[in-house]
């Protein structure tokens, strides 16, 4: 490209700076959704194995939190399997004992 040096042309080719996107930094990633996903798996297993309804509900809550805060690039299979495990924990806990949930710390 050649620019003519007109007095009416306000462009300055020597001042052009090409855009370079910033490199992604791994240190700025938030590990909270990953922690919530692990907690969801742990509480799901507690709900399934020990038939604890409150643990199954906590697993569903943690799974929802993990899904809401996950990035687009995260693995969808992990989130779906976590949801399915937590939902099955809730269903199985209520199939075993259909009575309303009572919390262990309340009388």
Report on the architecture of this protein:
The longest helix has 21 residues, at 76-96. 53% of the residues lie in helices and 0% in strands. α1 runs antiparallel to α2 (53-69), α1 (32-50) runs parallel beside α3 (76-96) and α2 packs antiparallel against α3 (76-96). The chain has helices at residues 32-50, 53-69, 76-96. It has 107 residues and is mainly alpha-helical. It has three helices and no strands. InterPro entries: ASTER. The chain crosses the membrane at residues 41-67, 79-97. Pfam families: ASTER.
Rounded mean pLDDT is: 85
Beta strand count: 0
- Class from helix and strand fractions: mainly alpha
CA-to-CA gap between the ends?
82 Å
Largest sheet: none
**Cα-atom radius of gyration:** 26 Å
Run of helices and strands: HHH
Total of helices:
3
Uncertain residue segments: none
**What is the overall shape?**
rod-shaped
Q: Helix proportion of residues, in percent?
A: 40-55%
Our estimate of the beta-strand percent is under 5%
Organism: Cordylochernes scorpioides
Keywords: Membrane, Transmembrane, Transmembrane helix
InterPro entries: ASTER (IPR005351)
Pfam family, one: ASTER
């Amino acid at each position: 490209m050649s620019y003519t040096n007109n007095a009416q042309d306000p462009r300055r080719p020597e001042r052009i700076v090409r855009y370079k996107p910033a490199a992604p930094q791994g240190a700025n990633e938030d590990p909270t959704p990953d922690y919530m996903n692990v907690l969801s798996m742990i509480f799901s297993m507690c709900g399934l194995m020990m038939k604890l309804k409150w643990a199954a509900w906590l697993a569903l809550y943690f799974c929802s939190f993990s899904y809401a805060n996950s990035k687009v690039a995260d693995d969808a299979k992990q989130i779906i399997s976590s949801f399915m495990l937590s939902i099955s924990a809730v269903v199985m806990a209520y199939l075993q004992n259909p009575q309303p949930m009572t919390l262990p710390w309340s009388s």
